[in-house]
Structure formats: structure tokens, C-alpha cells
Amino acid sequence: MRSETPRVLGRLLLYPSAELRAALPEIRVRLQAEEALPPGVVASLAELVAWLESADLLDLQESYTGLFDRGPSFSLHLFEHVYGEGRDRGRAMAELIELYRREGLALEVGELPDYLPVVCEYLSVARAEAAGEVLEATTPAVELLRRRLHER
Q1: Does residue 6 contact residue 124 with C-beta atoms inside 8 Å?
Q2: Are the beta carbons of 130 and 103 closer than 8 angstroms?
Q3: Considering Cα of 32, then 35, then 39, then 41, what sign does the dihedral take?
Q4: Mapping DSSP to helix (H, G, I), strand (E, B) and coil, where does residue 37 land?
Q5: pLDDT of 128 over the 60 cut
Q6: For the chain, which has fewer Cβ within 10 Å, the N-terminal or C-terminal residue?
Q7: According to the model, what pLDDT value does residue 1 have?
């Protein structure tokens, strides 16, 4: 893919912090310049960025935790949605780590390969063929997460 868009989108999924807030002006500029995203999506993301800039940081952190960290239904660890905590999840994560290694992406200590911001980071640097493999592996979980969030 080699596009900044997945990286920028992944950053918007990180736990709200002072560092994230400091990056929001750059994120806004990159999103406004992105031609691959539909205008409606860009407008929605601009609203998200504005909210992240204006809301109290503790309120943002509470909202984030309340949404993504209170049970598996909205987890940003994608394979949790399709494999739960079983052996198949471990196997799928090992395969994902191997894909990352082949493309030169090293995970931070304690970082899981199925964490959506990590997947987005990978998609921003991977060759198209390798990105396609990761998209194929993660799309069912992303779609399930999207549906759950939409319903909520």
C-alpha cells in the first residue's frame, strides 16, 4: 500500500494521550489531503479530530476505555472477534507476525500483531501483495467490529 492513510487512521484508534493530541494538527492536514477516502468519511474524521482536540483528556480516556476496553465485543485486538482466546488465535497471530517480519515491521515489546493500530501501521508500509494478505486475514474481524460499533 505504502500510504500514510492507514497509519493516520490507526493513530486515531490509539488511547487518547497528550502525544496523540499533539499529533492532531498533522493528522487533520493528512486527512484533508487524502484523495482515496470519500468526502463523507473525511468529514466524519474531521469531526472526530475536532472532538479529540476540544474534549477534556480525562473524558476522552474514559470514553475510550468504556468503549474498547470493557469486554471483547469492541476489542481492537481483531482476532479476538473471530477466534476468541483459543489455539487458532495464537496460530493466526504467529502467521501475522511472520508477515510483518517479511516486510520489515518489528513489533514493540508487548505489542500484539492483531491490534488494529498495529495492523494499520503495517498496511502503511507493506507492499501491495503483502498488504492484501493482511487485509484478507483481518477483514472479517474488522467488519464484525464495524457492525457492533454501528449497532451501539
Answers
A1: yes
A2: yes
A3: negative
A4: coil
A5: yes
A6: C
A7: 46
pLDDT of residue 2: 60
- Cβ–Cβ under 8 Å, residues 61 and 15: yes
Give me 4's grid cell. Answer: 500514510
Count Cβ neighbours within 10 Å for each residue of 96-110 and write b for 16 or more, e otherwise.
bbebbeebebebeee
Q: Would you say how long the chain is, in residues?
A: 152
Distance CA 84, CA 80 (A): 4
- Tell me how far CA of residue 58 lies from CA of 18, 55, 63, in angstroms: 11, 9, 9
Measuring CA to CA, which residue among 133, 135, 76 is closest to residue 99?
133
The pTM (predicted TM-score) of the whole model is: 0.88
CA distance linking residue 98 with residue 42, whole number of Å: 33
**Given 3-state DSSP classes, what are the helix, strand and coil percentages for the chain, each rounded to the nearest 5?**
75, 0, 25
Share of the chain above pLDDT 70, in %: 99
